[in-house]
Design a protein that fits this description.
Elements: E1 8-9, E2 17-26, E3 36-46, E4 51-55, H1 64-74, E5 83-88, H2 93-98, H3 122-137, E6 140-145, E7 151-153, E8 156-161, H4 165-178, E9 182-187, H5 199-205, E10 209-214, H6 223-239, E11 256-259, E12 266-268, E13 273-277, E14 284-285, E15 290-295, E16 305-308, E17 313-319, E18 323-324, E19 329-336
Parallel strand pairs: 4-5, 4-6, 6-10, 8-9, 9-11
Antiparallel strand pairs: 1-2, 2-3, 3-5, 7-17, 8-10, 11-19, 12-19, 13-15, 13-18, 14-17, 15-16, 17-19
Helix pairs in contact: 1-6, 4-6
Length: 339
Amino acid sequence: MSRKSLISSSIPFDDEGVHRGYLRMPHSVHDSAYGHIPIPVAVAKRGSGPTVLLTGGVHGDEYEGPLFLYDLMRRLEELDLSGRIIIVPSVNHPAYLSATRVSPLDQINLNRSFPGSRDGSPTQVIAHYVSTVLLAMADYAIDMHAGGSSLQYLPTLFAPRWADPQKKAVIASLVEAFAPPRVAYFDSLTALDGEDRVFGNVADQNGCHFLTGEFGGGSTVNLDGKLVAEHGVLGVLRHIGVLPRETATTPPAKVRHLDIASPGLFAFSPVAGIFEPAFRLGDELQAGALAGLIHDPSTPWNEPLKVHFKEGGLALCIRTFAKVKPGDCLGHLGRDTTP
């Protein structure tokens, strides 16, 4: 049995009404002997119904999710709730304040740290709290991401692909309710780099249905992506009965279903240099298409190295930084699939 988290909450999770406050993570350092890190949180509860955990800022340089969640936190009293919404707009708050993917306190990526450690570094303590407290309360979780500083995305919902018929049916209904312009399916328990120490894995271990998404990137704010996240989350809340259902006045959105599991859909730099892309977000590329050129700044008179995609598809992601080193992702595609 997991030991109780070191993080405490200044607000109740089980009381009726709307409560805003902080998660308090102890952080005793040289200039603050009895200090703590306050992580903003809000809870709204009314009557009976599902619990939904809404999160952003797992990576500190991703903004579309947190900004939508700010909007939602400000108007919780207006919502006609049946159930409970828990909002943590910047889960890795130290990273969010420093606008970095990893925490400045321990240089750890939160979304490669689950289920975390009660007695670990600050990021591991946060991961442990999410795993043992927040997800243990939730029936559904939506964790909003973007490409951060190094990548940009076409706003895209990401959904796990399950073999289990019941899980598959639930996810299909949530995707339909979210009604995104496109949805990309990924391995249920791992990140795109194969890591399994991720949010979605511990969500599943807690019996929590999970969606995520990439709604922009480039360490800026994609307004279209913020709207996709907003409309989608509210659609899911209506679908599961936490908010009142609306009478349909428009035809269902047409969703493009994409697979992103194949390694041939990704392009990586094999060398260090300057990346000149040969594609734009939203381009439809054929198999073998040129992803870009890698220029060697020390021998600029030499021909640049050409990097190709092995497979074809829709350009979902592109690198923002021109400077690259071996192993850096230059971008990836999505291939049409059936749900």
